Amino acid sequence: MKCPKCNSEMEAGMIQSGKMIIWTNKKHHISINPRKDDVVLADNPVGGATVPAYICRDCELVIIQYGDAN
C-alpha cells in the first residue's frame, strides 16, 4: 500500500492493546466504557485487542482499518 501523505511503500502490521482500542475526538481518562461519540476499533477483554494497520516509517503515518474490511 502506498502512503497517501508521501507516496512511500507502507508496511502491513497491527495495533495491539490489552483490552480495547478506541478513537475519540476529546482526550479523557481511559475507561471501561467508551463515550457515545467514541469509535471502538477493537475490543477483546480476555485475549487483547488487535486491529490491522499500515505504517509509513518515512513520514510516521499509521492507517488503521476497523470494522468490516469490505
Secondary-structure map:
Layout: E1 11-17, E2 20-23, E3 39-43, E4 49-56, E5 61-64
Antiparallel strand pairs: 1-4, 2-3, 4-5
What labels describe this entry?
70 residues, three-stranded antiparallel β-sheet, mainly beta, globular, two-stranded antiparallel ribbon
Strand tally, please? 5
* Structural classification: mainly beta
* Strand order, largest beta sheet: 1-4-5
Element order, helices and strands?
EEEEE
Distance from first to last alpha carbon: 16 Å
Helix content: under 10%
* Strand content range: 35-45%
Total of helices: 0
Average pLDDT confidence is 87
Principal-axis shape equals globular
Unreliably modeled segments: none
Describe the structure.
With 70 residues, the protein is mainly beta. It has one domain (11-64). 0% of the residues lie in helices and 40% in strands. The chain contains no helices and 5 strands. It has strands spanning 11-17, 20-23, 39-43, 49-56, 61-64. A 3-stranded antiparallel beta sheet has the order 1-4-5, with no helix packed on it. The chain is globular, with a radius of gyration of 14 Å.
Concise summary:
This protein is mostly beta strands. It has no helices and 5 strands.
